[in-house]
Amino acid sequence: MKIVFHERYFTSDYSMDPAASPGRLEGIMDRLKANKEYEIIEPKPASEEDILRVHTKRLLQYIKRDKFLFELASLAAGGSILAAQEGYNGNPTFAVIRPPGHHASTDSCWGFCFFNNISISLLKLYSMSKIKSAFILDFDLHTGDGNINILTNREDDFRVKILNPSSSGHVNYIKEVESYMNKLHDIDIFVASAGFDQGIDDWGNLLYPEDYHELGNLMKNYSEKLCKGRRYALLEGGYNHTVLPKNVDSFCQGFK
User: What is the pTM for the complete model shown?
Assistant: First the structure.
């Protein structure tokens, strides 16, 4: 399994929000680097062409006003593209990136997000005629409205199904995900909008490390069933620095 990461993602002063807080990614990377099954690969920034495939010139110019923020947001988008390309090639990949992206829409952004990393990565594959459909499992506590706004009800022939589970108990949450996946068909790639703020010791107070392992395992099993195992995941939320590394690693262990 591959882990997309760049040392610049450790930078914590591009913004003043929980996703940008100091120390958020260090514990994750310490844990993942200790596992020799994981290969760390380094991304390059997304091009403006890749960004403009998803966002308006107005939003791009707005982010570019802050040179530092633009550098990191472009690098996060580039990390998502690399993860998507590796996932498409049959290498399960988790991208430890920031800023996150699932609240960024075509011409607006909020919720600690600036560019929509998932949309940029999927539409990159679509532009290369590699995929025509995708399934997104968005298990972040907060529904990725940007993913929905950009990737559903499109005028082209790219089709995306998105699940943000709503079950209140952790057992029913997993059952909801499996039931949804069991009905999927004609999917070219699986991607997780991987927010860990539903964790039992995080904001959502719902999912245990074992649940994240099962979510990863479901992504593995159903992607192998439907699309030759093509799958990747991008880090979104997750704010308890003490438990975040274990939850991420638990997901990766099921996902790999």
Answer: 0.97
What is the β-pairing status of strands 2-4 and 39-41? parallel
The CA-atom distances, in angstroms, between 55 and each of 9, 63, 67, 177 are 22, 11, 18, 30
Q: What rounded mean pLDDT belongs to the chain?
A: 97
Q: Dihedrals φ, ψ of 206, to 5°?
A: -125, -55
All residues at 6 or more sequence positions from 9 whose CB lies less than 8 Å from its CB, including other chains:
25, 72, 75, 76, 79, 96, 97, 98
Spatial contact of 253 and 216, defined as CB atoms under 8 Å apart: yes
CA atoms of 147 and 136, how far apart (whole Å) = 9
Contact 204, 197 (CB under 8 A): yes
Helical (H) or strand (E) element with 3: strand 2-4
Cα–Cα distance measured from residue 234 to residue 104, given in angstroms and rounded to the nearest whole number: 14
Using a CB cutoff of 8 Å and minimum separation of 24, what contacts does 167-175 make?
168/206, 169/206, 170/200, 170/206, 170/207, 170/208, 170/211, 173/206, 173/207, 173/211, 174/211, 174/214, 174/215, 174/218
pLDDT of residue 3: 98
Position 156 scores a pLDDT of 96
Q: Three-state SS for 249?
A: helix
CA torsion angle 208 213 218 220 (round to 10)? 160
Domains belonging to the chain, first-starting first, are: 2-255 (3.40.800.20)
DSSP annotation string for 205-248: --B-HHHHHHHHHHHHHHHHHHHTT-EEEEE-----TTTHHHHH
